[in-house]
Design a protein that fits this description.
Elements: E1 5-14, E2 19-24, E3 27-32, E4 48-52, E5 55-60, H1 62-95
Antiparallel strand pairs: 1-2, 1-4, 2-3, 4-5
Length: 96
């Protein structure tokens, strides 16, 4: 399974190489925008995209980006809860 993380394109860093800077939940990372480049690259600045292994794979709107980030946060919280439950079960096994 591939997971795309929403990020906002904040600047074009190297037009010749189709590279841009994306802000992904406050972390900036250079990404390749060749998959979403249609027209002038500068038009991408301010738009949102799903980022996967350094590539902007698909453009999405701001609402979709916010919903996806919220779902990912929820998955992280669920994972933490599951890990805590597993730790608790292991601790109980060790005391019985």
């Amino acid at each position: 399974m591939c997971l795309g993380i929403p990020g906002q394109i904040v600047e074009i860093t190297d037009a010749d190489r189709l590279m841009a800077m994306a802000d992904i939940s406050g972390v900036r990372r250079e990404v390749n925008v060749s998959c979403i480049a249609e027209g002038p690259l500068q038009d991408l600045v301010g738009s949102y995209a799903l980022i996967h292994v350094g590539f902007a794979m698909a453009r999405i709107d701001e609402d979709e980006a916010a919903k996806t980030l919220e779902a990912l946060r929820g998955l992280g919280e669920a994972q933490e809860t599951l890990e805590a439950m597993e730790d608790g079960a292991r601790a109980l096994e060790g005391t019985s």
